[in-house]
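Hey Z.,

So I finally got round to the FE2/S2 (inorganic) cluster thing we talked about over coffee. Here's the setup:
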Amino acid sequence: MSTIHLKVNGESHTLEIDPATPLLYALSDDLALRGPKFGCGLGQCGACTVIVKGQAIRSCITPVSAVQDTEITTLEGLGTPERPHPLQQAFIDEGAAQCGFCMSGVMLSAKALVDKVPHPSEQLIEQALSGVLCRCFTHTRMMAAIRRYAAGGVR
Ligand code: FES
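And the result:
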């Protein structure tokens, strides 16, 4: 066990934890965050995606020791049910969710992209979403939501 400091959604946390513990487990088990999901545990489905240093990363294969003292953003760091983030509002407006399991990964992948490239091409959006699997197949609506968000200019 080691003492690990995590900064998640603007709050600091100190955990006594094995430094090799996947970040996803610390977020869900220790910090009770329900945004990042366990899908495959192998870095292949994208359900566990969070943003670290502006990059969408797979928290299931990232040890907590690798992200110490780095700002980590999960879905909970975007908006609230009462005050959704403009990206979340765009997904609501486009009805771009079915089961919702992949939504956290999709939104955080899209946010990381639009933060970097404010007006991304279709190809860039597809590329950003290519690592997040959605079995409900609402890709068309997700693409529309991301375009709407990018066009809105509100961050
Ligand atoms: Fe992390 Fe699938 S749970 S990529």
